[in-house]
Recover the amino acids of this structure.
């Protein structure tokens, strides 16, 4: 089944919105701190059962899927016609938006993965020798920031796909305008 650019755009959008939703839910479900339970020369932190780590990882997975789909859809041969990479990136605006999409995806991935892993470490390593520990959790607001960067990344992938559509049209018009087509070249 051949995909159209509209279909790939919808896939990128759906995956990005799901990543955003999971990131926002992870931020909202994250507890402010754990409950310290004093022991002999240690404090054991008891954390309430919450889905923050799972939601964080789901947000990361969907952001990666959205970005990989966005990247691959730039070079996909729609209607069986492919365009050389160098021809696409001759357009400076496309080149800039492509790199902004990559940067925001990477930054969003970092801001989602860091608090997820930190939260998981807090839950696993919950015995502290410091008797004054307050049972910390991941920093508040980082999940939300990562979620919004996930949404930004999705929007930049969509803009990049629109620019690729224009660059593809320009490339094929130039190929027709040269007066040479593959059949006439093959007859020589």
């Amino acid at each position: 089944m051949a995909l159209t650019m509209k279909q790939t755009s919808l896939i990128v959008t759906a995956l990005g919105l799901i990543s955003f939703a999971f990131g926002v839910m992870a931020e909202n479900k994250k507890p402010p701190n754990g409950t310290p339970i004093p022991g002999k020369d240690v404090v054991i932190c008891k954390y309430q059962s919450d889905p923050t780590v799972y939601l964080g990882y789901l947000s990361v997975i969907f952001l990666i899927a959205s970005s990989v789909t966005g990247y691959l859809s730039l070079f996909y041969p729609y209607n069986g016609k492919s365009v050389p990479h160098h021809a696409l990136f001759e357009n400076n605006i496309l080149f800039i938006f492509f790199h902004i999409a990559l940067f925001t995806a990477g930054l969003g991935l970092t801001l989602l993965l860091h608090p997820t892993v930190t939260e998981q470490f807090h839950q696993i390593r919950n015995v502290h020798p410091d008797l004054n520990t307050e049972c910390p959790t991941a920093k508040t607001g980082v999940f939300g920031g990562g979620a919004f960067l996930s949404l930004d990344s999705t929007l930049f992938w969509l803009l990049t796909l629109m620019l690729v559509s224009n660059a593809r049209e320009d490339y094929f018009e130039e190929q027709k305008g040269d007066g040479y087509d593959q059949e006439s070249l093959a007859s020589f």
